[in-house]
Amino acid sequence: MGRLIGRGGMTIRDLQEGSGCRIITPPRNEEEPEIREVKLVGSIKAIERCKEAIAAVLIGAEPKDVFAEIDGAVVMKNIDPMSMGHLTKMKHDIESKHHVTLDLDAKSVRIWSMEGQQKAQEVKGVIDDALQDILAVDTVTVPVPPHMVNLIINDSALQQIQDQTGMTANVQKNDKGTGIRLCGLAGATQEAKKMIECRVAGGGASFLALMPGLLDQMQPRQWNEFQGDVRFLQNKEGCEIEIGPNKVDFRGTVDCVLRAKSELQKILHFYFPTQCETLELEPESVSWVAGEDDRELMRLQQAGAVVSLDRAAATLWLCGNQRAVENVRSRVQNSLQRWKREHVSLHATRGQCRAVIGSNGAVIREIQSSTGARVDVDVNREHISISGKDEAVAQAKVRILQIISGAGSGASVPKRTGATRW
């Protein structure tokens, strides 16, 4: 029943809109048997159409894709972001040459032809062939001065390319010097290469990923106003902003690029309040949101929306249809609620931090042993973090607050001569 209704009722609304049929679900206060009945109200044709769509949705299909296939379209599903970006650029030429209509979504393409499904299948083959070059795996090494390696390898734009395409970036040193070795889809490695070369030349480079076809939804007046806002932003920040079909590129000084990107996110949210959103994260929660080996981030990206994590700024950019954005937002918010229960950050003076550590680490070891929580103390940053299961974190927090209170802001605690981080 949950899959039929969808997050915030988005799935059932799409089913009703696409079928012209009203779907009546049983009240929630009824006892829930293993099988629950829903009532369909509409014409015979609408009911049959709705039943077919529901059957597909219950096994994981998207309503819009299902109705497109019912109506004769050919649907290409699970298209990666790099291929979608390339396809967005080819869209007009393919439509003009083959007399078809391409309906692009975050991860699918619906091909419509007045000549029937056979023609649409032929165009699907054309698209598959056109994407082969960009899907080829390529390896490129970009020379980078040694003093810039750490700066570039941790650049947020480079990390976003890796997150979205699976490309790897590793530092490489050999007789020819130092460089960054890129391995992944040809389109991704070339995009990353340009970005790195721009950074090496002293400039800033970044991009903001968009859902394919987002800007096409604008009416002419809106489009003109949006372009005016972008021109004003360029003049204000002194950087170059290039609007593409599925992303916006930024070039300029590092600081200008960061500010312009942040401002454009706000502008897009103004024009598309239900389709564009920036979630601000606590810096300590960024790794949690990404998940181990970025697995959680990859799952979020499979939800049908563009999801970009900016680790440096501690923000998560969402762009997609309303249903997909709401799904991702809800999932992230639920995840962060769990993170807040299992992670606590405390700020304390250096004296208080040393009191928590104790002589030769005796106090911190006892706290961890008795509560089962992990406690990390960074004296230089004057920061204490606690992580573990809910109860363990709560117990450790009480113990540490008692110690901090006893040490006081001006407590005199013997200085450790060894490490300042535990």
UniProtKB/TrEMBL annotation:
Pfam families: KH_1
Keywords: Repeat, RNA-binding
SMART domains for the chain: KH
Ranges where the K Homology domain occurs: 1-59, 136-201, 338-405
GO molecular function: RNA binding
Organism superkingdom: Eukaryota
Protein name (record): K Homology domain-containing protein
